[in-house]
Amino acid sequence: MTKSVILVSGGLDSAVTAAMAVASGPSAFLHVNYAQRTEARELMAFNDIADYYKVGKRLVVDISHLKEIGGSALTDERIEVPEGDLSRREIPVTYVPFRNAHLLSAAVSWAEVLGAKEVYIGAVEEDSSGYPDCRKDFFTAFGEAVTLGTRPGAGISIMTPLIDMRKSEIVRKGVELKAPLHLTWSCYRDPELACARCDSCLLRLRGFEGAGVKDPIPYRTPYRTTSNP
Amino acid sequence: MTKSVILVSGGLDSAVTAAMAVASGPSAFLHVNYAQRTEARELMAFNDIADYYKVGKRLVVDISHLKEIGGSALTDERIEVPEGDLSRREIPVTYVPFRNAHLLSAAVSWAEVLGAKEVYIGAVEEDSSGYPDCRKDFFTAFGEAVTLGTRPGAGISIMTPLIDMRKSEIVRKGVELKAPLHLTWSCYRDPELACARCDSCLLRLRGFEGAGVKDPIPYRTPYRTTSNP
Predict the structure, then answer these.
(1) How far apart (Å, rounded) are the C-alpha atoms in residues A48 and A66?
(2) Alpha carbon of A214: minimum distance to chain B alpha carbons (Å)
(3) Among B63, B45, B12, B33, which residue's Cα sits nearest to residue A106?
(4) How many secondary structure helices (H) and strands (E) does chain A include?
(5) Which residue of A has its CA nearest to B70?
(6) Contact residues on chain B for A68, CB-CB shorter than 8 A
(7) Predicted ipTM of the assembly
(8) Per residue in B20-68, pLDDT tens?
(9) Which fold has domain B4-227?
(10) Distance between CA atoms of B98 and A110, rounded to whole angstroms?
(11) Is the CB of B101 inside 8 Å of chain A's CB atoms?
């Protein structure tokens, strides 16, 4: 019996989401490769986190056609991942068009076959880069499509436990639940030493700083987390 | 400028949908390989139909993890595709869990990058096998998720022009629009001579019979279309 399918990218948010979900019952871990720049490092983090939680049921799904479709700095090498700017209002070039719908579709198909009732995704709306497919309203609408588009009685819910949390709260929650934050990877640009400059690093560092916790992963030095308040 | 992305499986319904969509503006054709039994034949039909309409913008997407996820006779060779029975009420074993969400996600991502405003899918609710992800309500809910999960102003609509049509009406519409019905393939089981026995063949044959039109593709003989009224 599998209670939940958890989307685990290998980043901070998915590790904390996994910590919350595995506490509630047997889980299956799903990782999606969309040919993003740092996929090899993220896949390593996925397996490390799954090992940490002794999860046997793992699936890695390849949707690298998102690279062919392009339109994002994460999948198109010709578009540079910019220095982060968390004060920016427009949607950043790292947005991968409608990506989360692909992730959720894979998780829901697997959940339906496994008989799992919950699909977890570590999306964050407030303290985020502002991707449209990270909005709470998107997940609500998608959940309605799941109810209507799966077998009667499948009863699969989309769970977004972090959606309203600040990054600092996520870090504190992770520490509280003993999530393996040291095994996670968030940087958009560098697979060995996190750059501390892209949006993803800035959001992560600001979260650790706000929580008063030292981030255990290696960064290029020096870095300043307060350069983009 | 691309006006629409059309999901073209290579079957009757998608060919008629394509005939309707290409008439309204420049289109891009998208085919999805989910490792179904007759994919090679369907891909050939896709390219034949795209050639017929002189469509240059084509994309073939591989989501063969649906085979790994399994749970359907179309993707799991251990589950036999049964003799059709259109009087059946339960969801048939050929249902591929939540498949249409994967198809739509790929089409929407591509549409967002191309700037296309319409995504066409040839789904049919009434005169169909009863798959939950072919229901009109599913497409309405998914369309809401598309509006919320893409860039503000992307303005992408999900178009299901066949959703309320009977198969015989679809055949008539195809003939009226000179859709290349002779290039299509619908059989779930056989890539060379359509079996005339699976649900997909039975629905197709009933449609041609109802329209009073001879189906131009080759079948194994003899067959009786009225065995399952």
Answers:
(1) 25
(2) 34
(3) B63
(4) 7, 5
(5) A113
(6) 59
(7) 0.94
(8) 999 999 999 999 999 889 999 999 999 999 999 999 999 999 999 999 9
(9) Rossmann fold (3.40.50)
(10) 9
(11) yes
